[in-house]
Amino acid sequence: MPSQENAPATPHQCFYRTVERDSKWVTECEQCGKPRPEPEPISTPEKTMTFAQELERLINQHSRENGSDTPDFILADYMENCLISYNAAVNAREKWYGRSCGNGKAVSDAAAPKEAK
């Protein structure tokens, strides 16, 4: 794993991967090796779970890991990374169009590019 000293000087969007290190599974940035920060847990009266843990539980509950014979925690990590990547792509697109994004409001039809007729 790259050390923090070798991390790039310019900021970048971290894309995480799950790898085995010293007989343990860890999730780290592909580029700088920084570990993924712990997400805020989802609190329920019964228990407290992170999004990834709840997703892992849901995948396992419905046996969705059977089709690929992939452990449910790896599938949950993959799906969470898909959401992170999609959010980054949408934000980049909206920045390119000069529109705000991430404020919880839908982009209005008036702000969307018009189709050629």
Task: Give the SSE map.
Layout lengths: L15 E6 L2 E6 L12 E2 L4 E2 L1 H11 L10 H26 L20
Antiparallel strand pairs: 1-2, 3-4
Helix pairs in contact: 1-2
How many angstroms does the end-to-end distance come to? 53 Å
| Rounded average pLDDT | 75
Count of individual beta strands: 4
Identify the overall geometry: globular
User: How many domains is the backbone divided into?
Assistant: 2
Could you name the ranges where pLDDT drops below 50 across 5 or more consecutive residues? none
Q: Structural class, from secondary structure content?
A: alpha+beta
Written account of the structure:
With 117 residues, this protein is α+β, with helices and mostly antiparallel strands. It folds into two domains: 37 residues, no CATH class; 63 residues, no CATH class. Helices cover 32% and strands 14% of the residues. The strands form two sheets. A two-stranded antiparallel sheet has the order 1-2. Strands 3-4 form a two-stranded antiparallel sheet. Strand 3 and strand 4 form a beta hairpin. Helix 1 packs across helix 2. It starts with 15 loop residues before the first strand and ends in a 20-residue tail after the last helix. The model has no long low-confidence stretch (mean pLDDT 75).
